[in-house]
Write a structure and sequence with these properties.
With about 400 residues, the chain is α+β, with helices and mostly antiparallel strands. The chain is built from eight helices and 19 strands. Among the domains are: about 150 residues, Major capsid protein gp5 (Major capsid protein gp5 fold, 2-Layer Sandwich); about 90 residues, Elongation Factor Tu (Ef-tu), domain 3. The radius of gyration is 27 Å and the shape is elongated.
Length: about 400
């Protein structure tokens, strides 16, 4: 089926754009419609305003936790600084697919029927498809952004760039229970965190989230509480006080659960990750995973389901694609390019493509030999507006 519907009626004239027909369509939908089963992200992500520089940035508001808010009947207004915002950035990556076909190869009669027209047309079609897959590869596997130079090609970070552990080294006091981060974790009182460590501090549980109270004079100094009310109101008997410092302790501020490469994921892991995003105001619903992990997902969901059949019926082949968890519905998607080591559950409203230039064929290349040549170009990067609205399970055992 054609990607676009063209106007094939007789034009009034071909002198003016509003009278003429046959204008070329934007190649963006061509790229995403060719292989949508491969380019799930490229097909599903929205398009925000165009990029104007090779490095683009945006501001995101912090999801401030609720606070105590009670005032006297008769009092003067007191004014406080308004909420904070955080700057995030990514790079535009330059995608190119090119090719050439000799004049003779393009002209000779073929024993096969070329559905795209000439061999040159066929090569261009393949270039569109390959470029869509290359963009998707960046979205799935781009773990970091790389700034471009004269000799270094810029790279755009993909999903893993935004959905990473982002661990911060901390020291834990066994005397007063305070946690001091090596760098500012950019947390607000009432935010949630959890910890990983070579040896967990006595009194803290690996993977269990805690609420933090941020010291008024030092944003790197935190105290931990079992409840948000305890953190906000500084309730002493709700404070968690480790009795041993532990070793190699790190704070995780994102909604990322690491299984350390030693275990497969469970429904509890999905619920724990979803809970962290839920408590920060996110609503992740679309889970992306490899075919192997999709089978695992299906088995876990079906294990909770009892199927009744009439006597003598053959066993039905069942596949579960949806899980109703404690913190929302998760729709599982098989992604052909996904590694077995991670599952990402995304709040899709916060993921967009930023184009410096949309997919296009380079013009005016000129003919300098007995062949025709072409170049398909796209300059685009990924914008993850609010990563803390999504969640991930990483370092999954293969």
């Amino acid at each position: 089926m054609a990607d676009v519907t063209r106007n094939l009626n007789k034009s009034a004239n071909q002198s003016f754009t509003y009278d003429a027909i046959g204008h070329a369509e934007d190649l963006s939908p061509i790229l995403t419609n060719i292989t949508p089963e491969v380019t799930l992200f490229y097909s599903k992500f929205g398009n925000t305003k165009p990029a104007t520089e090779t490095t683009f940035s945006w501001m995101t508001k912090g999801l401030r936790p609720p606070q105590t808010n009670a005032h006297l009947e008769y009092e003067k207004y007191e004014f406080e600084p308004v909420g904070s915002i955080e700057g995030l950035s990514n790079n535009v990556q330059f995608f190119q697919n090119s090719g050439l076909v000799s004049d003779v190869q393009n002209e000779v009669v073929k024993a096969y029927n070329n559905e795209h027209g000439t061999d040159l047309d066929d090569a261009k079609f393949d270039a569109y498809k390959y470029q869509a897959q290359d963009i998707e590869y960046m979205l799935v596997n781009g773990e970091k952004k790389v700034d471009g130079t004269k000799t270094v090609a810029p790279l755009s970070g993909g999903i893993p760039y935004f959905m990473s552990m982002n661990t911060i080294d901390v020291t834990v006091s066994s005397t007063d229970g305070t946690v001091t981060a090596s760098t500012d974790p950019k947390l607000d009182t009432g935010d949630i965190v959890y910890f990983v460590a070579k040896t967990m501090p006595t009194g803290l549980k690996k993977g269990l989230y805690y609420y933090v109270r941020v010291d008024a004079s030092d944003p790197k100094k935190l105290t931990l509480f079992d409840t948000q009310k305890g953190a906000v109101e500084n309730i002493a008997d709700k404070q968690v006080k480790p009795t041993a410092a532990g070793t190699s302790v790190q704070l995780v501020a994102n909604n990322i659960i690491s299984l350390g490469g030693s275990a497969d994921f469970t429904l509890d892991d999905i619920n724990n990750a979803m809970e962290m995003a839920f408590k920060r105001g996110g609503n992740p619903t679309e889970a992306f995973m490899s075919s192997s992990k999709f089978r695992k997902f299906s088995d876990l969901v079906l294990a909770q389901t009892t199927t009744y059949r009439k006597s003598g019926e053959k066993k039905a082949a069942m596949v579960a694609t949806i899980y109703q968890g404690a913190f929302g519905v998760v729709n599982a998607n098989i992604h052909r390019l996904y590694p077995d080591e991670r599952v990402d559950i995304l709040d899709m409203q916060y993921w967009d493509m930023r184009y410096l230039s949309r997919p296009h064929e380079v013009t005016n290349l000129g003919k300098d030999g007995t062949y025709e040549k072409f170049v398909i170009e796209t300059r685009v990067g990924l914008q993850g507006t609010q990563p803390k609205a999504s969640c991930s399970i990483v370092d999954i055992q293969r």
